Amino acid sequence: MTFQAPLPGLFAPVNVETPDHSPAQNMAATPKQIAYAQSIAAKAGLPAPAALFHNRSDLSAWIDRYKPKPVTGRFSNYPSSKQVAFAERIARLKRAQVPPECFKDKSLMARWIDGNKPK
Q: Does residue 105 fall inside a structural domain?
């Protein structure tokens, strides 16, 4: 009796010599990707990379290079003013208070908002 694998070629050796061509290399950029790139270009005062709109991976690399960097520094972990205002509005509706520790950490504030926002 012989064993026949249900998927022929499953355990066949892989040819490492051939380059891996992912389908994303040849695909056109998505409309959302193009809109995001145009907004980055407008905010940075750069020309929109129209030549890159035909290649998704190249446009993605351009976006990664020029997108705004996350804020770092002493107050980077504090919640935004919009987040605080939204939390205070929820607290007024629920006749409760936002815990003081939430004002020092944006992730705590986000969790408090998610747990208390009206359905």
A: yes
Q: How many domains does the chain have?
A: 2
The shares of helix, strand and coil residues in the chain, as percent rounded to the nearest 5, are 55, 0, 45
Helix residue ranges per DSSP H, the chain: 31-44, 56-66, 81-94, 106-116
Task: State how far the Cα of 77 lies from the Cα of 53, in Å rounded to an integer.
Answer: 35
Which pairs count as long-range contacts for 77-83, CB under 8 Å and 24+ apart, including other chains?
Answer: 77/104, 77/105, 77/106, 78/103, 78/104, 78/105, 78/106, 79/103, 79/105, 79/106, 79/109, 79/110, 80/106, 83/109, 83/110, 83/113
pLDDT digits (tens, 9 = 90+) for 100-114: 999 999 999 999 999
Q: What is the pLDDT of residues 26-83, one digit of tens each?
A: 788 999 999 999 999 999 898 988 888 889 999 999 999 999 888 788 888 999 999 9
Taking the model in full, what pTM does it have? 0.50
**Within-domain flag for 76:** no
